[in-house]
Amino acid sequence: MARKTGLILLLGIIVSFLALPAVYGKTEDDIPVSCYAGDPSDNRWVGEVAVFNVNKARGNCNILYEECEGDCTPCYVDEDSREVCIDRSGNPYFR
Fold it and tell me: What's the predicted TM-score (pTM) here?
């Protein structure tokens, strides 16, 4: 009985450990995004976030960085190594 309980406990720990990146933390599918207060050309970088969907980046930046005062501009590097920023309307543009 103790052996069976030990195996179940070990299996639970392994499953929890494997599920951890999905619940908390960065995964390989995350996109690193730089957050800028206001216009990125002013170079007021406030930090970074990792997002699965770049359309959520503006909201994530604004939640995490109060320096933006609700006006963070997220920028990321696309698959062609170009820096892309997202404007207030959610439209991407090249920096």
Answer: 0.69
Q: What share of the chain is helix, strand, coil (3-state, %, to 5)?
A: 40, 30, 30
Task: Give which of 49, 33, 43 is closest to 86, Cα–Cα.
Answer: 33
Buried b (16+ CB within 10 A) or exposed e, 73-92: bbbbeeeeeeebbbeeeeee
pLDDT in tens, 66-81: 999 999 999 999 999 9
Phi, psi of 55 (to 5 degrees): -70, -15
Q: Which residues contact 55 (CB under 8 A, 6 or more apart)?
A: 86, 90
CA gyration radius, the chain: 19
Those residues with Cβ within 8 angstroms of residue 77's Cβ, 6 or more apart along the chain or in another chain: 32, 83, 84
